[in-house]
Fold this protein.
Amino acid sequence: MKQTRDRSRLDNALAETLHVVPPAERSDDTGDLAAQIMNIMEQGVLVWSAEGRCELHNSRIYQVLEITADDLKIGTLRRSFRERALARGELTCETMRNSDSLFQARQPYSFDRVLPSGRVVLTHARPTRGGGYVVTFTDVTAERKAARELAEAKRVAEAAEVRAREVLAHERARQHEAKLLGQLDEWLQSCKSLDELYQIVRSFMLTLLPGSKGELYIYSNSRDVLDGTCNWNTRDLHNSIMADSCWGLRRGRSYEFRQGGLCFPCDHVTGHGHEVAVNEYICVPIVAHGDTVGLLHIRFDDTAPGAARIEDKGEFAIRCGEHISLAIANAKLRDELRDQSVRDPLTGLFNRRYFLDALRREIGLALRRNTTFGVIAFDADRFKEFNDNHGHDAGDMVLRAIGNRLQEMLVNGEVICRFGGEEFAVLLPEADLERTAAKAELICNTVAGTQVRYMEGQLPRVTVSAGVASFPISAGSVHDLLKRADEALYAAKEAGRNCVRMAGSG
């Protein structure tokens, strides 16, 4: 009787599992057919009773789970079966807890178990109407490997896409930076003077390095200090700094400071009170044709709007410094060449060509503004005799002394020129004839009171004679104006020298 009841439960479980005809509706040979079908299935099949005992299993389960009859047979307790799987490392404590919880709640569950051989078996369990569970074990090693390979391929593809985006973003950033530097170069190379160049640097740095604060320092002519020339986003521009106060200048290369790193602050930073703490900055020596001409000092603020547009601020600052270096070198060279073309090499005063151009420009201004200006022509008295008696070197010393005194006296926009030899001329913008004559008297008195030392003694004092003319009263053209001034100069010579004479109206 008991065997008949057990066989009935097994047949019902098989019917649920295999969807075969229930015992009440099939012939006596159906049970054997069901058992044959179970044993030829690729899956392992196991039926637990409501009390947790093995009621049925097929023979395929031994191959799928790599176990023997010692591990599983009819009557084996579910707890014992699972503890052996835990000991073999096929299950984890967490998996056991989760599946036991669902088993008690009469809920289906599934999980992967990894056998000691490395094969992966999907364990899938669902409850039966009689209170037990039907469990199937499916070898999914190939499927899991394919899934892992697919996931890895997806990860590699996504990583490649990320790298491609980064490369594209990097290239776009480089193109953006190159465009900005190209615009900077275009403007810098168009500068007519260093002052214009400094203005352009100030304006462009606000765009090139958003949120940065900085200053540009250029070596003075004496090269003992660096003078502050321009700044942006800060009031910390110093009149001058010492060359040895900067680690960048002392080491001869760009120097980056970051708070907390293995670096030391520059004295020109710590020695001057900044408005805020300086935690990160870079000092870029301005080097032109192998010669250090200045320093670019930049502090960064990553929180400022647009600051993230530059990929590597330090490297970009160095590139900015290189472009500014070349522009400064070219501007200095242009200034030197221009000075050589318009300056007298002995006295440093303007030469005849520059003076004539200045006269033409001043006539144009005077005509537009309806103003006047004055011209003084003067030369040293008896200078040929002076050279014959004391030598040309002594004469050159006197001419340089006259040029120095003129530059000291005339600091209100006057144009001072050495015409040649001992001849000089001065243009006084917006001056009438009387004011021009008064300035000429001052020049005569100043030169007469100048003492020049030569070698171990003092040279005899030299006097000058001067003639003055004014536009438009004396003349209306460059040629005529100079001619009237020269005529007044000759009149001063005839009057005994060391005096001033004025030209009449034209």
About this structure: The longest strand covers residues 280-288. The radius of gyration is 50 Å.
